[in-house]
Amino acid sequence: MSKLAEFRQLEKNLAEQLQALEALKDDAGLKQEIEFETKLRALLAKYGFSLKDIVNLLDPQVGRRTPVTVQKGGSRKPRQAKVYTNPESGEIIETKSGNHKMLKEWKAKYGSDIVESWLTK
Question: What is the pLDDT, as a whole number, of residue 4?
């Protein structure tokens, strides 16, 4: 796209966004929400509260919820090693992940289903 065409497209998009913004400015629902937010923030500031304090006040369980994190080597049980034996070459691969170089080569050559059937342990 040429710079001129890109400029005109951006100019057109900007005009459309400005038009949408002007339409929103006249929206009664938006005016009511802005007024509510302004008054709420003023009230919070007057009493020294934050939005987090209000959430904890209304629903204490929300404030206590913490995201679940899995620590490496922590509560997760270690992966079991898998042993694959290639019946054609007699080669043996022992791996804990599917990211093993030779295992990937086998899957590319023979297909994933075939290689998984070679699983011995």
Answer: 93
- Structural domain boundaries of the chain? 3-64, 82-117
Tokens 């966004």 correspond to what residue?
A: 17
User: Which residues of the chain carry a pLDDT beneath 70?
Assistant: 63-74
Q: How many beta carbons lie within 10 A of that of residue 120, not counting itself?
A: 9
* Contacts with 120 (C-beta within 8 Å, 6 or more apart), sequence order: 83, 84, 85
8 Å CB contact between 120 and 81: no
